[in-house]
Design a protein that fits this description.
By secondary structure, the protein is mostly helical. It contains eleven helices and no strands. The longest helix has 20 residues.
Amino acid sequence: MLKNHSDLIYAHSLAVGVYASLIARQLGWRSQSTLFKISMAGLFHDIGKKEIPKTILEKARMDMTQEEVKIYESHTVRGKEILSQVPGIPEEVVFAAAQHHESMAGCGFPFQIPRFRIQPISRLICIANEFCNLVLKSPNKEDVSTAHEALLKIYTYKKEDVELSFLKALMEIFNYPVPADLLKLSKSKDVA
């Protein structure tokens, strides 16, 4: 469904699944069931965008009207609704569609929920999504970041919004110098 709606969303979703799986493995998560759910969550996290007009998806957020932002942000709830109706989709995958734009600081969307209520796989998809938004081409941005530039941007501007142990793992994957405040973090054992 996503590929038919937009090749870019499809490519982005595949990349989020791959990077989320790499982060999980870097964290020491080895359960095949968990890794399968993570890959599936990455692939389906933006399924709700299939119901958003392409004219909105192709705009930069700062160029959207308030109504367009509201429609865009609805993709998380729409994704949850779509996946909830598919037999056999794991609950974690449904949560990832609904929660991948929530923030560790409790200021994300759609519900501004606090960190402790965001599912671990949703937090993992969040960081992979942020990374892929920076390193992949899209019609609504002029420049694409290298992996190291993206990691610096996330650390500098989004550090309060993402799970820091996941950011540290992503830095380690790309041999990015891990800042001192992240070095003390141990591997997350939220999901194993």
